[in-house]
Amino acid sequence: MIISNIIFDKKKFIISFDNDEEIKISEDTLVNFGLYKGQEVEEEFVENLKFEDEKTEALLLSYKFLQRNKTKKQLVNHLYKNKIQREIIETILPILEEKKYLNDEDYARRYLNDALSIKKYGKNKTRYMLMSKGIERNVIDKVMENYDYELEYMNALELVEKRISKDESDPKKIYSAKNYLQGRGFEFEIINFTVDDYLSGE
């Protein structure tokens, strides 16, 4: 096969061959392969060219998407939405991990820090949110090894203070405060301990 023509059209280069076949590729792929008019190539080369061009496109999409901290699952879903083939995705994930663009453990540690310091979630909700973002269980367990239970208690206490007064005696209001903490992902043990601690004035 011989490249009979190369023309630019709407952000892509159209490569025409002498057998009337055409493919569209990016400028990066064109430069990387050093393509030129009159060049002779094998048929399997064309398939390789298509694959490499799709890989380049997928990497560019990934770099843009990963400008903000994301998980592997979030990235994969994004690529599928952009019609990137599974084979391409499986090819680029190791590249992105090696270049430190993807790191689920680092994401989980950052999320845990924000969950405690800013969002004031309890342990259960933090774990649930990490799982919903596609973080593997073993990674979550590893990150949770250094969980700050003292800060979690302080967060729970701060939230209780906003729901009931220290001399509250209405069981319904106390139950409502506990239910609120449960909704924010605190475990029953810390909920009961914090509310009892608060009401007793200790």
UniProtKB/TrEMBL annotation:
<comment type="function">
    <text>Modulates RecA activity.</text>
</comment>
<protein>
    <recommendedName>
        <fullName>Regulatory protein RecX</fullName>
    </recommendedName>
</protein>
<keyword id="KW-0963">Cytoplasm</keyword>
<comment type="similarity">
    <text>Belongs to the RecX family.</text>
</comment>
<dbReference type="Pfam" id="PF21981">
    <property type="entry name" value="RecX_HTH3"/>
</dbReference>
<dbReference type="InterPro" id="IPR053924">
    <property type="entry name" value="RecX_HTH_2nd"/>
</dbReference>
<dbReference type="InterPro" id="IPR053925">
    <property type="entry name" value="RecX_HTH_3rd"/>
</dbReference>
<dbReference type="InterPro" id="IPR036388">
    <property type="entry name" value="WH-like_DNA-bd_sf"/>
</dbReference>
<dbReference type="GO" id="GO:0006282">
    <property type="term" value="P:regulation of DNA repair"/>
</dbReference>
<feature type="domain" description="RecX third three-helical">
    <location>
        <begin position="152"/>
        <end position="192"/>
    </location>
</feature>
<feature type="domain" description="RecX second three-helical">
    <location>
        <begin position="103"/>
        <end position="144"/>
    </location>
</feature>
<dbReference type="Pfam" id="PF02631">
    <property type="entry name" value="RecX_HTH2"/>
</dbReference>
<dbReference type="InterPro" id="IPR003783">
    <property type="entry name" value="Regulatory_RecX"/>
</dbReference>
<dbReference type="GO" id="GO:0005737">
    <property type="term" value="C:cytoplasm"/>
</dbReference>
